[in-house]
Amino acid sequence: MQGENVEASIDIANMTALQKHVEFFDRNKDGIVTASELFEGDWSRLFIG
């Protein structure tokens, strides 16, 4: 399983606010939020609104 891309289905309607926040910053949807993903997420907020 090493090296495979795995993406889980996401049910946003049943997520807590914290889960939604983490989901936004987990850019590659691997369940792990890295420092680079936090940086990318911050930049996207600046340009989206």
Overview of the molecule:
The protein is mainly α. Helices cover 47% and strands 0% of the residues. The protein has two helices and no strands. It is flat, with a radius of gyration of 12 Å. The mean pLDDT is 76. Belongs to the caleosin family. Pfam families: Caleosin. InterPro entries: Caleosin-related, EF_Hand_1_Ca_BS. This is EF-hand domain-containing protein.
Descriptive tags:
mainly alpha; 2 helices; EF_Hand_1_Ca_BS; Caleosin-related; EF-hand domain-containing protein
Helices and strands, with pairings:
Blueprint: H1 17-25, H2 35-48
InterPro entries: Caleosin-related, EF_Hand_1_Ca_BS
Family: Belongs to the caleosin family.
Protein name: EF-hand domain-containing protein
Count of DSSP-assigned helices: 2
Which residue ranges are poorly predicted, with pLDDT under 50 across at least 5 consecutive positions?
none
Question: Roughly how many Å is the radius of gyration?
Answer: 12 Å
Give the H and E element order.
HH
C-alpha geometry: flat
Query: Mean of residue pLDDT?
Result: 76
Counting helices, strands and paired strands, the structural category is mainly alpha
Total number of beta strands? 0
How much of the sequence is in beta strands?
under 5%
User: Main sheet, how many strands, which sense, barrel?
Assistant: none
For the termini, the CA-CA separation is 38 Å
Q: Please, how many domains?
A: 1
Q: In which range does the helix fraction lie? A: 40-55%
InterPro entries: Caleosin-related (IPR007736), EF_Hand_1_Ca_BS (IPR018247)
Family: Belongs to the caleosin family.
Protein name: EF-hand domain-containing protein
Organism: Digitaria exilis
